[in-house]
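Continuing from the previous page of notes. For each protein in this section, the sequence appears first, followed by its C-alpha cells. Read the first protein now.
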Amino acid sequence: MSAHEIGLVDALKAGNYHFIDRNTFEDKRAAMLLAYDADVFLSSANAITEDGVMI
C-alpha cells in the first residue's frame, strides 16, 4: 500500500521500464516467473522484530 500511496507504482508504470504488476495477472505462477527473472524486485517487510530486524 505504501508504494501506491506515495505514487511509486504510478511512476514506474509511466516510466521507461518493463514494469510487471503481479496483481494484474490471472496466472499468478506466470507472474511470479516473470518477476523472478527481473533485474530489480520491490517488496515490503513482512515483520520487524523487537530488536529492529526486518523479515
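Done with the first. The second protein uses the same format. Note its length before scrolling.
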Amino acid sequence: MTTLLLVALGSALGAPARYLLDRFIQGPHQRVLPWGTWTVNITGSLLLGLLFGLASRTGLDQRVLVAVGTGFLGSYTTFSTFTWETVRLIEDRAYLAALANLTFSLAAGLAAVSAGVALGMLWAG
C-alpha cells in the first residue's frame, strides 16, 4: 500500500509539472513541431537516467525510485502525446516534420538518459 501511495504522490506532482512546462515552452502560438512535448520527454529522460545512475552507486532507497521514477517521471513524460503529435503531423502532411519529431525525440531521449546515468554515477562517486 505504501508503494501505491508513493506512486500516486509522485504522479500528482509530475502531471502538473508536465502541463506547465509544455505550455511554457509551446506558448500561445501554434508551432509545427511539438517543442513542449519534446522538452518534457528529454528532460524526463535525463532525470530518469540521473536517478538510476545515482541509485546504481548509492543504493538509493527503493521508495525514492518508486516515487520519483515511476510516479513523478512516469506522469511527467508522455509517450502517448509524442505519438499522437507525430500522427497529427502526418495527417497534416508535414512528413518531414513528423520524421524530424520521431528521429530527434528518439535520438535525444537516448542521449539524455545515457548522459543522466553517466552524470548520476559520476556525482555519486
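What the second structure shows: The two ends are 33 Å apart (CA to CA). The CA atoms of residues 33 and 97 lie 7 Å apart. We return to this in next week's lecture.
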